[in-house]
Amino acid sequence: MSKKGKRYNEISQKVDKLKIYTPEEALKLVFETKSAKFVETVELAIRLGVDPRHADQQVRGTVTLPNGTGKTVRILAITSGENIDKALAAGADFAGDDEYITKIQAGWMDFDLVIATPDMMPKLGKLGKILGTKGLMPNPKSGTVTTDVAKTVEEFKKGKVAFKVDKLGSIHLPIGKVNFSEEQIVENFKVALDQIIKLKPATSKGQYLRTVAISLTMGPGIKIDPLLASSFVAK
Questions:
Q1: I want to staple 232 with a disulfide (CB 3.0 to 4.6 A). Which of 13, 23, 46, 74 is the partner?
Q2: How far is CA 33 from the centre of its chain?
């Protein structure tokens, strides 16, 4: 058995797989599942009572985490004219127009997020297969198509996160790092979950939050009672 396997098994013993934890219990326990030699990400996973096959049950949006994600996001701004300088001044790692479209077509992908101004979207259409499959295509619903490129770059650099329900009805998003304080993770958890609850589609019937879980990058999932999670957010 590998070192990683032994370590994971030891950590897993701290989590009762049959237990549904309160938010308070889970948010404390997640720190005890630290195992990796790197600073792991605290990840929130939610399965929703929606059918993503229907356009009116798509859950997609952004949330600004008060304490950020702890991750340095490499931002590429596809824009033109004076907006290029504005994007760079606001913190974009790369900014430009046709030159970056050509670079991406040639295989360059050294970025984590693409922000674009509306005038560039027709040109970005040719990158649909490249950016779309990686979830990087700018979209107004994810806040990555904007007329105020500087403000948008600043927001994503400070901790704004875009999320989208997948074909299984689940949402996964980072809410910090294991070196954050418990209070910072709790605050990020509440803000992220609150935003997802607010986006409940009118056509979603029955229980909206089906499952809620929290974990570290290399750790086991810790299940949280969905009803208690909702009331915890409201506190």
A1: 23
A2: 21
Query: Which residues, in sequence order, are bridge partners of residue 234?
Result: none
Contact 146, 117 (CB under 8 A): yes
What is the side-by-side strand order in the sheet with 75-78? 94-96, 75-78, 113-116
Whether residue 221 contacts residue 42, with contact meaning beta carbons closer than 8 Å, is answered with: no
Q: Are 70 and 216 in contact (CB under 8 A)?
A: no
Q: Name the band, by pLDDT with cuts 50, 70 and 90, for residue 54.
A: very high
Alpha helices in 95-203 (DSSP H): 98-105, 121-124, 128-132, 149-158, 182-198
- pLDDT tens readout for residues 56-94: 999 999 999 999 999 999 999 999 999 999 999 999 999
Distance CA 70, CA 65 (A): 10
Contact 77, 116 (CB under 8 A): yes
209: tokens are 């939050």
Rounded to a whole number of angstroms, the distance between the first and last alpha carbons of the chain is: 45
**What are the helix and strand counts (H, E) for the chain?**
9, 9
The helix (run of H) or strand (run of E) holding residue 13 is none
* Cα dihedral sign, 185-65-38-17: positive
Specify the amino acid at residue 168: L
| Residue carrying the six token digits 């979209």 | 139
Angle at 13 between CA 181 and CA 188, to 5 degrees: 25
Tell me the pLDDT of the chain averaged across its residues: 93
Q: How far apart are CA 100 and CA 167, in angstroms?
A: 30
- C-alpha–C-alpha distance, residues 137 and 148, integer Å: 18
